[in-house]
Amino acid sequence: MEIIIDNLNAESDVIEARNAALKNKNGIRSLDLQFREEVRMDVMEALQPPPNLLELSFVGYVGIEFPRWITMSLNNLKFVIMDNCSSLPPLGNLEFLEEIYISSMKNMKYLGREFLGITGDGSAIAFPKLKILHFETCEEWTDLLLPQSEGAAPPPPKQDATGEVGY
To answer: How do residues 72-90 score in pLDDT, each as one tens digit?
Structure first.
């Protein structure tokens, strides 16, 4: 199922999003949300998909905050695409997440601890099942600030001629 979000900033849009009742549509396994402008957070919260969602795509999201349901109710999520968004949600505590594709993050300079989704003493393991973490066309990226077991900072990512980032 693909949903294109456009011009949803009125109170009636919140009601419409709630009436869509995506969270009760258990047949949805993949959800592609495409944005053309900033969307009110109450509309975003009302677009909560069902908890058994396996794949989620955010394209063009310009909000600084993401809806709570991304990390609080999508416990089976395995695949995420974040394309041309202005920020990233804390995905590290999604225990079944296997693949993350991040692309066209034009202003992203680094990934910080907030991306890991770890709070408190940091003893939780971020991304316990992650197999693929793919970055593409992140032109301003200079450093990856994820904690290292030896305490050393990781090397900056290398970008090949196609714009793909790897180590």
So the answer is: 889 899 999 999 988 889 8
- Quick check: 116 and 90 in contact, CB under 8 A? yes
How open is the CA angle 158-164-165, to the nearest 5 degrees? 35
Count of the separate structural domains present in the chain:
1
CB 146 within 8 A of CB 110: no
Phi, psi of 44 (to 5 degrees): -60, -45
Domain extent at residue 131: 2-166
Using CA atoms of 71, 73, 79, 83 in order, give the dihedral in degrees to the nearest 10: -50
Cβ(35)–Cβ(60) below 8 Å: yes
Q: Which tens digits make up the pLDDT trace of 20-62? A: 899 999 888 898 888 888 888 998 999 999 999 999 999 888 8
What is the rounded distance in angstroms from the CA atom of residue 62 to the CA atom of residue 100?
Answer: 19
| Residue 139 contacts residue 107 (beta carbons within 8 Å) | no
pTM score, whole prediction:
0.78
